[in-house]
Structures are given as structure tokens and as C-alpha cells.
Write a structure and sequence with these properties.
The structure is a single chain. The termini are far apart. The protein is built from nine helices and no strands. The protein is an all-alpha fold.
């Protein structure tokens, strides 16, 4: 994926409409996966992911070709996604009753396996939610999405050493939570 993204700024600078679908294909799964960890709701994650790419497309339309060529796409897209996640969290905090939703259930697989997977996934979401926001963001972006520390630093406007510390502290806290659950 990184190889694909390396050539995209040049292509986007010369043909935004032609290259944009490749940007979406290259990043949408990672953005959705990471956003899902922040929103903890599939519907909200879908909305935030879609809005992220709408805003990326609009922003590219306002940038000159030189600026587009110099973009570091993953940190830039993640900055937009994280801002949308923060906005969504503020909205939920102000209007919690508006967030009552039911996730779709996939009935094509083995129901018992799906139930175990869902409980496990929910447990991980709860553990991640227990982390302070900077640690949660760093852990999700590094270990769920796969961003390198430098790109996380650029996305979050924090130093690389701070991001490394956030990941390390977040993982230590997750280990502690798992150990406490086992007791």
C-alpha cells in the first residue's frame, strides 16, 4: 500500500478525478478499521470514513498542484479522520440519546463463533476506550491501522518521541487491564 501511496500525490496533482478512486481504495479499509475503534459503532465509523474522503476530495480541489505533490497522504488523511472522530465524540457527548443504534448482524456464519468474536471485539473496544485519548489514538493508529510513528506524529501534531511513549504506555495499560480481567 505504501508504494501505491508514494505515487498518488503526483497523480492527484495532475488528475484528481482519475487518481482519487485509487486513494480511496488504498486507504479506506485502514481508515474504517481505525475509526471504528474510536467511534465504537459501525454506522458512525462508516459515516466518518465516508466524510473523511469527501473532505479529502474537496480539499484537494482547493490545493495547487505543487502543494498536492508535497502531501504526505496518510498523515494528512488521518488528521482529517481524527478531527471528524473528535467532532463526532463531542456531538455524542452533547446529545447521547441521538446515538441509539443497532448494528447489523451477519447471519451467514456460525452464530456461536460470531458471538464469541463479537464479545472479544467488544472487550477490546472497551479496553481501548479505557485508555487516555492520546494513548488510544497512538495505539490504534500504530497497531490497528499500521501507521509508522512519524506519520502518527504528523497526524496528531505531536512529536515522534511522544507518540512512541503514548504507544508504549498504552500497551502497558492494556496489559494491566487484561491481567486484572484474568484475576
Amino acid at each position: 500500500m505504501t508504494r501505491t501511496l508514494d505515487h498518488l500525490p503526483q497523480r492527484l496533482a495532475s488528475d484528481r478525478d482519475g487518481a482519487f478512486p485509487d486513494l480511496v481504495r488504498a486507504m479506506q479499509d485502514g481508515v474504517f478499521s481505525g475509526v471504528l475503534q474510536f467511534t465504537r459503532n459501525r454506522h458512525d465509523a462508516e459515516d466518518v470514513t465516508q466524510e473523511t474522503f469527501v473532505r479529502v476530495y474537496r480539499a484537494l480541489g482547493t490545493y495547487d498542484a505543487d502543494r498536492i505533490r508535497s502531501l504526505r497522504l496518510r498523515p494528512w488523511v488521518w488528521t482529517i479522520a481524527l478531527n471528524l472522530c473528535r467532532n463526532r465524540a463531542r456531538t455524542v457527548a452533547r446529545h447521547p440519546e441521538a446515538q441509539l443504534t443497532v448494528d447489523r448482524v451477519d447471519t451467514h456464519g456460525d452464530a456461536s463463533i460470531e458471538a464469541v468474536n463479537e464479545v472479544s471485539l467488544e472487550a477490546w473496544r472497551d479496553r481501548l476506550a479505557a485508555l487516555p485519548a492520546p494513548q488510544r489514538t497512538a495505539v490504534v493508529l500504530h497497531h490497528v491501522v499500521g501507521l509508522p510513528y512519524a506519520e502518527i506524529a504528523a497526524s496528531t501534531d505531536r512529536t515522534e518521541s511522544t507518540v512512541r511513549s503514548d504507544v508504549r504506555r498504552g500497551l502497558a495499560r492494556l496489559r494491566t487491564l487484561i491481567e486484572e480481567e484474568a484475576q
